[in-house]
Specification:
This protein is mostly helical. It is 48% helix and 10% strand. The protein starts with a helix and ends with a helix. It binds zinc ion.
Length: 267
């Protein structure tokens, strides 16, 4: 046991005492702070032993992706879409990471050109497994097709994708399925997935028909569990809600038209 570990042990006792003091205060802010100092201490201690599990399981407070890696006492967000400047990584001190609430994913993003983080799908399966949100290869294959992510050939049969692109899909899917809370309450299941919900019209033109059907099916599946299904459907069925494209309130544009016509007849 080296002196660093001994110091950490003493610091741990101080942290527990401080957290307990805050807990006794019992205000929501004090409780949150107590939880944060405990979490931050756990991340620091893990970092010291080289066995890092908590950081990759925490969504980045800025982009909401599970792309944080513990490097030299800081959490680095490795998503290129989150970088404050090209080539720079967003970094979080463990104390900030533990205190700031998880970020809401802003939506699915796509890379142009030839990004530096192109990885084959089996690598990405391993990468996301570290977040505690395991995604089977078959699901990942379906996602990248569904969102039409750019791909780069590895050999004649396999393709690689930008880790950052796939991470944004992963983050919105996890947030939608968990119905993660933000400051204002629950999020609608479609937030961050506008391309999936809007590019589902029969008039979508050049889009592959089977891909379009699959998109509609997935969008409807997400609507079915959404806490906002009823109000969203009512909005979409208002007489002047015609302009809206894509799936809304669990219905396609054609289905909404039909329902409106039927309602008009019965009214
Ligand atoms: Zn980030």
């Amino acid at each position: 046991m080296n002196t660093k570990v001994l110091d950490k042990q003493q610091e741990g006792r101080d942290v527990i005492a401080r957290a307990a003091r805050l807990d006794r205060e019992a205000s929501p802010l004090a409780r949150r702070e107590a939880a944060a100092i405990r979490d931050a201490f756990a991340m620091e201690a893990e970092d010291l032993t080289g066995n890092v599990a908590t950081v990759p399981q925490t969504p980045c407070p800025a982009c909401g992706c599970f792309t944080l890696r513990a490097i030299k006492g800081k959490a680095h967000c490795v998503s290129r879409h989150c970088a404050p400047r090209p080539g720079l990584r967003r970094r979080w001190a463990y104390r900030d990471l533990a205190f700031v609430r998880p970020g809401t994913p802003r939506g699915v993003q796509r890379s142009e050109g030839y990004p530096a983080d192109i990885r084959p799908l089996p690598f990405l399966v391993e990468f996301f497994a570290a977040s505690g949100h395991r995604v089977p290869l078959s699901t990942l294959t379906r996602w990248v097709k569904l969102h039409n992510l750019p791909r780069w050939p590895v050999d004649s049969k396999t393709y690689a994708y930008s880790l950052s692109d796939v991470a944004t899909v992963h983050a919105v899917q996890v947030a939608a399925r968990e119905g993660r809370q933000c400051g204002n309450g629950a999020r609608p299941a479609c937030s961050g997935l506008s391309d999936l919900f809007f590019n589902t019209d029969d008039q979508a033109g050049a889009m592959d028909q089977s891909l379009m059907k699959r998109r509609v099916a997935v969008a409807k599946e997400l609507c079915a569990d959404c806490p906002f299904l009823d109000p969203c459907r009512e909005m979409a069925l208002k007489p002047n809600g015609q302009a809206q494209h894509g799936v809304a309130g669990g219905l396609t544009r054609n289905e909404r038209r039909e329902l409106k016509t039927r309602r008009g007849v019965s009214a």
